[in-house]
Design brief:
By secondary structure, the protein is of the alpha+beta class. It contains four helices and eight strands, in the order E-E-E-H-E-E-H-H-E-E-H-E. It folds into two domains: about 80 residues, Scaffold protein Nfu/NifU, N-terminal domain (Ribosomal Protein S8, Chain: A, domain 1); about 80 residues, Fe-S cluster assembly (FSCA) (GMP Synthetase, Chain A, domain 3), CATH 3.30.300.130.
Length: about 190
């Protein structure tokens, strides 16, 4: 098994490509070791000293490290953990825990929210997946769109610029009711 790695715009996050499916659909975000109980793979990766976050896409794993740790010191152990897991035959996830992504929205703005989700799915999410992350809809209130940033996008120095200059401009262009885009700290 050969696992490729790619850098991301977030210097604390590295993208690992195992060359096979990680999730059949959706994403899974593990912002801490305590949240990894539903994933034998995430738990194994968190076993590496210095790992602070794990995120799964359909064909990639992104790992976020502590600021005090150097990639040269932990990358080999992470590669080993991923390889061991896929060779073990264990599932990546136990149960149905992959997220389709967007939060549900009930209310009078249903048509606007459908448009927002469609633009996110067709224009935004494929691009941020290339960088090892995901951006999902969290809410819409009085013109403000709330988005949840995951994987390499969470904590990325350029994420504010991406939100304001990229996503906000895109949504405002196509949906006049959108006035602003803001990140949410956690989708829970």
């Amino acid at each position: 098994m050969f696992i490729q790695t790619e850098s991301t715009p977030n210097p604390a996050t590295l993208k690992f490509l195992p060359g096979q499916a990680v999730l059949e659909a959706g994403t899974a975000d593990f912002p801490s070791a305590e949240t990894s109980g539903t994933s034998p793979l995430a738990a194994r990766i968190f076993g590496v000293e210095g790992v602070r976050g794990v995120f799964f896409g359909t064909d990639f794993v992104t790992v976020t490290k502590a600021e005090t740790v150097d990639w040269d010191h932990i990358k080999p152990a992470i590669l080993g953990a991923i390889m061991e897991h896929f060779q073990s035959g264990q599932p990546v996830m136990t149960g149905e825990n992959a997220e389709a992504g967007h939060a549900e929205h009930d209310g009078p703005d249903g048509d606007i929210v459908r448009q927002i989700k469609q633009l996110l799915d067709t224009r935004v999410r494929p691009a941020v997946a290339q960088d090892g992350g995901d951006i999902t809809f969290h809410g819409f209130d009085r013109g403000v769109v709330y988005l949840h940033m995951q994987g390499a996008c969470a904590g990325c120095p350029s994420s504010t610029l991406t939100l304001k200059m990229g996503i906000e401009n895109l949504l405002r262009h196509y949906i006049p009711e959108v006035t602003e885009v803001r990140p949410v700290a956690d989708a829970m």
